[in-house]
Amino acid sequence: MPAQAMPAQAMPVITMHDWLFLKSILAGLAIAAPVGPVGVLCVHRTVLESRLHGLVSGLGAAVADALYGCIAAFGLAALAHLLLDHTSEMQLAGGILLLGMGIHTYRKRTAALPKGEEPLRMHSLLGDFFTTFVLTLINPITILAFAGIFVALGVFIEADRALLDPILVVLGVFIGSCLWWFGIALGAGLLRGRLDIHHLEWMNRISGALISIFGAAALIDLAL
User: Fold this and answer.
1) d(Cα 218, Cα 67) in Å, to the nearest integer?
2) Which of 169, 175, 149 has the alpha carbon at shortest distance from 18?
3) Fewer beta carbons within 10 angstroms: which end of the chain, N or C?
4) Whole-structure pTM over 0.90, yes or no?
5) pLDDT for 52-70, tens place per residue?
6) CB count in 10 Å sphere of residue 85
7) Cα(128)–Cα(84) distance, rounded to whole angstroms?
8) Which of 221, 156, 201, 191 is closest to 42 using CA atoms?
9) What is the H or E stretch that residue 107 is in?
10) Kindly report the CA angle at 60 between 78 and 107, in degrees rounded to 5?
11) Could you give the count of Cα atoms lying within 13 Å of 57 in the half-sphere of its Cβ?
């Protein structure tokens, strides 16, 4: 008797929710990818302190991105307009904060890295998280970037959509942003232990100068 044919295996079906989630992950990656002061801080803290400090710094930026994702995904137009109406104040605060952090980093004296990881200090990790969270949150470019990238990728949330759609958008943006920042931290961690005290001193100066330049550029742009 002829052997019975095996039933064909059903191909996986990609639903609209799957596409929306994937597009939101791409949006999170695209928003986090541009080089800026948060990226400099993430690399600097990873190399001079530990991978965990870099990861926590990236997490702060990712949470701020997710909050802006909430504004876009849930259609909080009133809040978006309120933030855009105060871009000058946000830019001023961000510029001053970056200048202060840059000068402090530039002048910071560095000791040789220990052979093992330093003991964890919770207040230091919280400081790492909140500095990148605030810097990302008060950057008016972030919400403008969301609008442009959401349109480019076709990430739209209609008023009559189910609650699942905006939740998928926010979760996707958070995951995409985390992927970028965690990749930066893990990559920068490869430099740990390979730099001597002179390299570390120069890294402080270069990082401090770059952060200060970002701050000065924000203030100059505001004055023009």
Assistant:
1) 22
2) 169
3) N
4) no
5) 999 999 999 999 988 888 8
6) 9
7) 26
8) 191
9) helix 87-107
10) 120
11) 26
